[in-house]
Please model this.
Amino acid sequence: MIDADHTPWPDVAAAHRRGAGLAVLPVGAHEQHGPHLPLGTDTATAVEVARRLAERLDAVLLPPVHYGATWGTSGWPGTLSLSAATVTAIVVDLGRALAASGAGGLVVVNGDWGNRAPLLVAAQQLMEEGVLPVVTLDHPGMAEAIDEVRESAPAAPGLAHAEEVETSIMLRLAPDDVHPDRYEACYPVFPSHFGTAPMPLHPFSPSGVFGDPALATAEKGERLLAATVEGCLAVLDDFVAGVLAGRAEAR
Ligand SMILES: [Zn+2]
Model:
């Protein structure tokens, strides 16, 4: 594994030429995560998953995109959201630059729900233009791990924000950034069409918590992260094989 931000260019160039030559890009967010978790929670999670993936894939770990398309949480001070078009443009530009650098493929590790659509648009554009193979990973495997690990009820199906899940992950990654003395639970009443129409989230939870962080532990956080990395690797099996086959053909 090569951490590109801490490596001279000839070593990165050699890594791009080796094997599948994958580059792993974490895309996070700068977004409110309740009164007890840092704004960089999603970035920290994406970086950790990306780092572990890069190690397992002998890939180049890229520095993260620290901002994301987080329109829904922009009603809380501190959240700094990019437009969806900006997220798409960043990843398209980086994909082109990586192809020019000789990388064999791009693995995007997405840390925030709001980035999903713009990242898919970027991947499609890079594919259509024949720039390089791209896959976007939205923490595959984590939902199943959450079902096994979480002891508190979710605020809504599929929703994990600043509650037991995310607090557990941050207790594992950056315990000094977690403030247990500020834990509070919030179970809002959502309208029936929640999740199907864009809506700002701040009217539903003054604190920014959705669920209950009280039962979070670092051990749960490690189980969630480990399961996510395995989920990513399972998704990547055929992608990596395809990149290797394409490179062999091109030589
Ligand atoms: Zn988050």
